[in-house]
Amino acid sequence: MKRILVTGAVGQIGSELTMALRERYGADNVVAAGNRTKPSDKLRDSGPFEFVDCTKIEKLQEVVKKYGVGTIYHLGAILSAVAEAKPQLAWDVNINGLYQVLEVAREQPCAVFTPSSIGAFGPTTPLDNTPQDTIQRPNTMYGVTKVAGELLCDYYHKRFGVDTRGLRYPGIISYETLPGGGTTDYAVEIYYKAIEENHYTCFLRAGTYLDMMYMPDALDAAVQLMEADPATLKHRNAFNVTAMSFEPEQIAAEIRKHFPSFTMDYNVDPVRQGIAETWPNKMDDTCARKEWGWNPKYNLKTMTQDMIEKLTLKLKGA
Ligand code: AKB
Predict the structure, then answer these.
(1) pLDDT tens per residue, range 86-128
(2) For residue 115, which atom of ligand 1 is closest to its CA?
(3) Would you tell me which of 39, 120, 149, 206 could form a disulfide with 44, CB atoms 3.0–4.6 Å apart?
(4) Neighbouring C-beta atoms of residue 53, cutoff 10 Å
(5) Domains along the chain with CATH numbers
(6) What is the pLDDT of residue 198?
(7) Which residue minimizes the CA distance to atom 4 of ligand 1?
């Protein structure tokens, strides 16, 4: 088979997606690519690993040729809070990196998976049951790069026939690798702090509803979309997908079912709060359900149960 390349393989989603793809398609068929961060032993020892800066096309071309890559899962990106602190870097990584990946995919050719985000929406987007096709005027650098990325992927499909596909991910909750500087990170941190300190200080305000998803569903969504019959796909590059929507008090209440004395207070970060307020409360993901069968398995209750179980073992070093 043609091999798979995962960029951003050391990151929150990439580290788990690489392992899931190795399990599914064979370890030697999945090349993990990181930029600067040292990979875990598990990632480096379970299959091929390369250091690739996606903004440099030569290295990308070399790796794609060397391994005979036919599909790229392009996860290398800067998340929303870091993008607001370093907008120039965010543009370079999120746009120039994607552009080079698409260029390599056009030349070779390769199929390309690109994650978009709830960050592709903005203050004038309908906040509730946010439609698949709606107003997208984000006012953050992250949002600007996500909308431009969606359009660029559409363009490469229409103009050059590249098999581009993608999802608008909500906040992803997981216990393997920490997210790196997003607005939805509170929903990961809260589990660590609940287990370690029985207390969490939340940086988003009570009542801030956001879409969320547990990692196993996020991985399934990517693989399912890339394996879908292209004839059924009308949207291709930016499917709304969600599994649950909650606000900080609801996740705290669910955690209290496991740790009854767990407490939470607030120290609101104006930057991340400002970003969160421009994102949907809950997206409508009907198109993903209809076009390729999206159907998440985890809700807040089942995710919390699993997160606490797995994270407790991890933090004990078991
Ligand atoms: C972030 O918060 O930046 C990401 C996202 C929702 O895209 N988790």
Answers:
(1) 999 999 999 999 999 999 999 999 999 999 999 999 999 999 9
(2) 7
(3) 39
(4) 18
(5) 3-171+214-240 (3.40.50.720), 175-211+244-281+297-315 (3.90.25)
(6) 98
(7) 182
Catalytic residues, by residue number, are 142
Listed in sequence order, the residues at least 6 apart from 37 whose beta carbon sits closer than 8 Å to its beta carbon are 10, 11
> For residue 307, what pLDDT is reported?
98
**Could you tell me the end-to-end alpha-carbon distance of the chain, in angstroms, rounded to an integer?**
36
Ligand 1: lining residues by beta carbon, under 6 Å:
79-80, 117-119, 169-171, 179, 182-184
* Strand 199-202 relative to strand 263-266, pairing: parallel
Side-chain-facing half-sphere of 174: CA atoms under 13 Å: 20
CA 252 / ligand 1 centre spacing (Å): 20
Mean local confidence (pLDDT), 172-194: 96
Ligand 1 pocket: which of 78, 183, 269 to mutate (most atoms <8 Å of CB)? 183
Task: Out of 13, 78, 80, give the residue to mutate to test ligand 1, the one with the largest number of ligand atoms within 8 Å of its CB.
Answer: 80
| Residue entry with tokens 């939805």 | 184
Is the pTM above the cut of 0.70?
Answer: yes
